[in-house]
């Protein structure tokens, strides 16, 4: 019996972002399929299970999507099939998928024909009351082709047959609760909107040629030569058409952007809500060094997610930074492994210790611990390579609660910190000492007016699903 | 520049059936995915562009579909992914697809979640008033994920939220007009229905183990060891559940089954509405020999579609049957050809003359002439091989009108018989003589109480789309 | 557990030709890769396991080959990769492969660098003393990259370092015994040669543009617009260069071309050694009707291999020909089947009875019986469909001996006729009567000066391998 | 027009290692195909164009190889096809391929049948007199199936028909000159050998279960749970059979291992000839800081190749290390790009600056400069991101000469340092200052008794090919 490892399996012990979105509107015809491809490629880290885009020239409306990486889904033939000479609007999506047999049909963007013409929509995040709204609409005779939240939003929009697309979208935003960032297009408009708390990110950029761009992270703007203009504000709906960029504040609450964007998800070349990710990670490391100092010989990051915090820890502590774990750059490829060896191989094929750790007291810095299984293996690797002490430092607080706003943190019972004390976790992973940054320390390191830290505290700013629906969400295929 | 030929290109000068449907209900759990695969394989000649199936065990509901032949879409991995241990109901579909970029999304079965639970539907044929109904429902706030007629039907069914599935389906049948045969499944029921004129075929079979089967042709029943019980009657709705087979006559009119099923589409081992296809083709050949005799040395079929009529013509005329055209069995594979040579190669790579025609006066028998381009090349092949005379005999009348009931006969202006006399066509294709069977002769050869011969006469028993919609149908992608 | 059926599995109960060869030389630069592709496509029936070609423009020398059908191996990218603008010489090959893990490396053409420059070679047939010669050369320090007979020939050619390519090839022909037809190319010459008995076929053609063509069958000439000039004579070596076509009679013996080329292998539009295949098959059927008459209602061929003989049988006997078995044109595709049902499905998915046999006494005509398993199932199909009697007529004598000249007739113990009498076979397959054509009758029906009928008589005109080597041949992977 | 980027294109401005080799011998039957797969996966960085392995159980001898990454070539089906239950010996290979149409046929291991039985061989490096020896053997009647150096070695071995495999291999080593490390297997023996100067690396390891392993780098030992025993000595031939590990010193010269193994090729968790790569890279950075100091704010590595030297530079200089360039982990995937944008995208899609460089004087550390095109783009990226000064530091001396021992450094005229002074290169790449480590400094940083630095000095320890053959090597396809 063999198993296959894929990209996402290698990060199986990390929280998983469920999506990245991208949109572009160009008054002058442009090769938007190509620009969307570049943008999605830059957002690939936000979702590796599926990719898709739709493109319109004001008349035709093409869509392609499938399971796989952006570069796998869009081979030359398929990219050509969505390339429209006079393209004016396009959106795209990358996705971390949930399980189930109907994966392909849940890929985004979702496209549908409505009384407002053909629409395409892609979202990042979750509507916590989607199932309630869905049940209600089913009773009224609606069809649902997918189990995708976007379809609930699109049904709400279509139902308002007397409103125009912008009004109907604003109405739908008011009906749905949760943490989300969405892009939506018709043949002639590009819309983007963010939940009232701004849990999920969405930024606005512009190219020299005037084209407007929306994306989950600024790196996707840079990838196509656009400048970062600003973030979409929490609760804001923006739309772009022939006349330019318009804005409507639908409903703003206390901003609580997701702290994990800075801890782990966002690329180190991104800035979100005015805060630079690389710099914030260095500050987390510095804060961690102040809060949880230790006497040691070198500071070693778990590559690549722990690099920023490790640099910060080294700077603050004065302990030298070193590269004690080699990361195999081919580790993301589909890999075959005998079932009985699969678990351990996932780590061994990805990481191996360098000589830097031999005979050293090591401060090992990672961004988070979810299940703890990977952490234990990394500690073992270091000890086998001759590390005399391993002091594990984590640049996020213990994760004790599930996320309902679009991040797959694993079921609650699998979260090691929800059932074990820090000392118990230390014993489980076999470190000499283990310490997490404090929630206050994290807030200080990131900065900004507010943060969603529901997964550390259970305090959900945008509410939770009905208890019954939590189970259904788990069951739904 | 190169072109690729595919399966369907090699029959590009034939009318194209748009679909084949299959459904099975088994009170005892059975490997329905495998049986549906076998059934679809037997119906492959009815559609080569896409294939799909959905399967339920009463709880789970899996669907897989894609572009390609049945054996291409369902490799082992994919067939396994719809295989449910306790499967009780399954439907499947093969399709000749229309053009456009959204082909994949129009593949069937169409599945959707409704107030009657999750439903899967597959159809053969067309609803002529689908666009009217669609417009009306869009206004009311409905979404349409596809341009597929099945989705209109499903919306009609979902809208009747107080009716059960059977009642709602019957209501929907009364709202839609056209020529169609459909299968529809929920987690616990299999439904099948046929338009009031019975334009498109649908048969009922049963296996020894009690499982009920619905299919476009009996060959799909035989393929899974089922007996033919009877045809679904025109205007009849049948449904199968734990209790057995139920029937409701929704609305019956004068039966006018499509004559092309016997002329060309149906396999020669099928019987439809009590009439055997192979036998009817022999009778067409005999009738043609009586109506349009000629002095000649051998009767040669265009393989494989002209074989039955050629045998009939030879028997009636006493002229020896011979195998004058070799058909390359590999001709259906994807083939690369330089653009400038592509047209002629389509015929040359498929057919080549044997020595049988050398020095002979040949009666060449084919089932139909659509554009005439292929016919001309076949006549040329025979002359190059030494045939002294070529007398072309066609076992269908001239096709002068488009079909609105699910057959792609090419646009009217491309139908050579709509703009040319028989003598002009004879000159175009270069035959010494050319003759078609008469419409009366065809009716006599097929037999039965009625026939749709709209494509020969313009007399459409189930009506036509609104004039505007005819254009839209052509434009829709 | 599942099995996959492929193309060749569906003919598993037929003798298997091991190869088809093709070569072309054009003094003017031409698109020879494309012409070779067309030629190989026409020879596809001679081998479905692997395909390959090499092409030279006098300077570069490109080769591509792989497992699969011609159209699978040569997708657009791969065909382009062997397309040389100024190509002057090319050879190609299709192959029925033997088993073993190193299949890919045995695909042809075989290319090698020698003191005569780079050479490419492809063969049909076998050298019966190849293993002896090989052992001898290994002792002398030769390397063998493959287990392919062509490599033995190439080593013999290379060893004659003082001779030119033509002389060395003639010398090698004298050293090797067996039944074979080969094409061989250098950067500037095309050679073709046939064993002294002419067991395997090879024909010469020419295009209007002067290009010379060699091929296993004339159908490959016609496919590229070439005329049949003549057959290569038994024992003749021909070569083509800038000056034209040259010939050398190396060693001619009593011609004994393989009778199975006319019985089954060659396409019905081919002529070999002056004898037309389709006509000879009709004569076989007529002879069979004279030798083994029976009272019956219809004559039914096993499609497609029995068609010619069935027409002949019908003509001679006056019993009507009919199309009693439908052959599914998609049956050659890779197909998945549960292991326990696989055997029976191989026939059922390919053939199904039409109504023509119902209530009839059927003469069933096929070209050969190897193992008999398929024959039994076909007889069963006809009885299940209502045939009242089944009279099996075979247009070849019983196969009792293995072929050592390139045809895989199955191991001797699997040949039903080597261990069973005709009456016993009749009982095994369940026919009412069974009769084979006589060897004399076959010779008369085919005509010509001589025939290899070793598989019917055990009389091997070109000798057999050493007894030890027969076993080694079986073991070799 | 579009181009496709592949793995290797993204390192197109780096020297390219041509191969990695692996071999394993296990007296007890073991799953050697799986262990070889793991070993090759760990060596993937040494060659991304092709991968292959052969496996024997003492009787059967299976081989699989193809173009692609290890994980692409060996999908489950293919890995299974070389899995022999009682496997005792296996070798494997990964390769950076040269251009030409016959790539597939040059993939390794090369297998051949000889008077010493079937042999498989894989090599890293080059024999500089291979063409001379090849010419000589062609004259004697030898065939060459490939243009692969291994085949020359195998012909030499086969020619010694009176010697056993070990003796014949030792004789062949004496006949061939160059820089190489090879593994060779028969059905019952595993051999490994390294050129007399030890230019290319080869190490010996052993697993707990007693199996002996040979590999280009220790990381492949660790990957399968083996310990590093020692390096194969320059000029040593080792062989392993049922009795254990044997050694023969064939011909030892002054050791001059390739300096680029430590500069760039070897993984940072490898030790070669007793010298740790990660530590040596830190020493290179420290040396560089001493030799070429500069006043600046941060030290930034070009990831991942410059990390070690950057850490060293930072430590020695006291300037803070920071992560100023983000490397997209998906950049190695096949990527489509419009031709006109392709060149610049190769860098942009792989690297993007973080905020760390904004307003900073940056020391940018890389391991080497080949053409300089990539370096210029990286300098531009940093300036665009706000770096006020860019001081480029290179941990290898200027590359002025081609390598004839297995590394593709680009043609001499493309080597920017062979035609430009350091100041000119600085201007070309747009850096404020540019400095390379000195050759003496490099020797000191690496340590050890000797080093091949031919590419910096033109002093070739193992000789060069004949002048004529240098051209032929370039032309050979």
From TrEMBL, chains A, B, C, D:
It catalyses: 5-phospho-beta-D-ribosylamine + L-glutamate + diphosphate = 5-phospho-alpha-D-ribose 1-diphosphate + L-glutamine + H2O. Its cofactor is [4Fe-4S] cluster; Mg(2+). The keyword Iron-sulfur applies. The active site is at 19 (nucleophile). Pathway: Purine metabolism; IMP biosynthesis via de novo pathway; N(1)-(5-phospho-D-ribosyl)glycinamide from 5-phospho-alpha-D-ribose 1-diphosphate: step 1/2. Binds 1 [4Fe-4S] cluster per subunit. GO terms for molecular function: 4 iron, 4 sulfur cluster binding; amidophosphoribosyltransferase activity; magnesium ion binding. Pfam families: GATase_7, Pribosyltran. Residues 19-243 form the Glutamine amidotransferase type-2 domain. Gene3D superfamilies: 3.40.50.2020, Glutamine Phosphoribosylpyrophosphate, subunit 1, domain 1. SUPFAM superfamilies: N-terminal nucleophile aminohydrolases (Ntn hydrolases), PRTase-like. Mg(2+) binds at residues 305, 366-367. It is an enzyme of class 2 (transferase). [4Fe-4S] cluster binds at residues 258, 403, 452, 455. Its EC number is 2.4.2.14. Keywords: 4Fe-4S, Glutamine amidotransferase, Glycosyltransferase, Iron, Iron-sulfur, Magnesium, Metal-binding, Purine biosynthesis, Transferase. One of its GO terms (biological process) is 'de novo' IMP biosynthetic process. In the C-terminal section; belongs to the purine/pyrimidine phosphoribosyltransferase family. Catalyzes the formation of phosphoribosylamine from phosphoribosylpyrophosphate (PRPP) and glutamine. This is Amidophosphoribosyltransferase. It comes from Deinococcus radiodurans (strain ATCC 13939 / DSM 20539 / JCM 16871 / CCUG 27074 / LMG 4051 / NBRC 15346 / NCIMB 9279 / VKM B-1422 / R1).
């Amino acid at each position: 019996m063999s198993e296959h490892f894929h990209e996402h399996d290698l990060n199986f012990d990390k929280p998983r972002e469920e999506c990245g979105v991208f949109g572009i509107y160009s008054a002058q015809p442009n090769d938007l399929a190509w620009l969307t491809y570049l943008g999605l490629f830059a957002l690939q880290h936000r979702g590796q299970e599926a990719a898709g885009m739709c493109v319109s020239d004001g008349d035709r409306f093409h869509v392609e999507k499938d399971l796989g990486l952006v570069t796998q889904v869009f081979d030359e033939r398929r990219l050509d099939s969505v390339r429209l000479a006079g393209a004016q609007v396009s959106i795209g999506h990358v996705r971390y998928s949930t399980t189930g047999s109907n994966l392909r049909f849940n890929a985004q963007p979702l496209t549908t024909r409505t009384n407002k013409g053909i629409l395409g929509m892609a979202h990042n995040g979750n509507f916590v009351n989607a199932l309630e709204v869905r049940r209600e609409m089913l009773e009224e005779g609606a069809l649902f082709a997918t189990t995708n939240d976007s379809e609930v939003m699109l049904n709400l929009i279509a139902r308002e047959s007397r409103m125009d697309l912008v009004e109907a979208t604003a109405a739908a935003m008011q009906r749905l609760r949760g943490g989300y960032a969405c892009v939506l297009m018709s043949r002639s408009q590009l819309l983007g909107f963010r939940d009232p708390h701004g849990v999920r990110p969405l930024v606005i950029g512009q190219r020299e040629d005037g084209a407007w761009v929306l994306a989950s992270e600024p790196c996707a703007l840079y990838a196509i030569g656009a400048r970062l203009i600003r973030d979409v504000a929490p609760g804001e709906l923006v739309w772009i058409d022939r006349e330019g960029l318009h804005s409507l504040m639908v409903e703003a609450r206390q901003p609580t952007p997701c702290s994990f964007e800075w801890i782990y998800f966002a690329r180190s070349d991104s800035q979100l809500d005015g805060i630079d990710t690389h710099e914030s990670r260095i500050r987390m490391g510095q804060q961690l060094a102040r809060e949880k100092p230790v006497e040691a010989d070198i500071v070693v990051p778990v590559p690549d997610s722990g690099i920023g915090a490790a640099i910060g820890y080294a700077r603050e502590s004065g302990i030298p930074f070193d590269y004690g774990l080699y990361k195999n750059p081919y580790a993301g490829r589909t890999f075959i492994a005998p079932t009985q060896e699969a678990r351990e191989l996932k780590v061994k094929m990805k990481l191996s210790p360098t000589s830097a750790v031999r005979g050293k007291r090591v401060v090992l810095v990672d961004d988070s611990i979810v299940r703890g299984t990977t952490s234990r293996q990394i500690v073992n690797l270091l000890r086998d390579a001759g590390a005399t002490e391993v002091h594990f430092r984590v640049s996020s607080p213990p994760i004790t609660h599930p996320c309902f706003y679009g991040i797959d943190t694993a079921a609650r019972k699998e979260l090691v910190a929800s059932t074990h004390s820090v000392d118990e976790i230390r014993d489980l992973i076999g470190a000499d000492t283990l310490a997490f940054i404090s929630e206050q320390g994290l807030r200080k390191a990131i900065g900004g007016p507010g943060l969603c830290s529901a997964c550390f505290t259970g305090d959900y700013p945008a509410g939770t699903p009905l208890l019954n629906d939590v189970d259904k969400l788990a069951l739904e295929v």
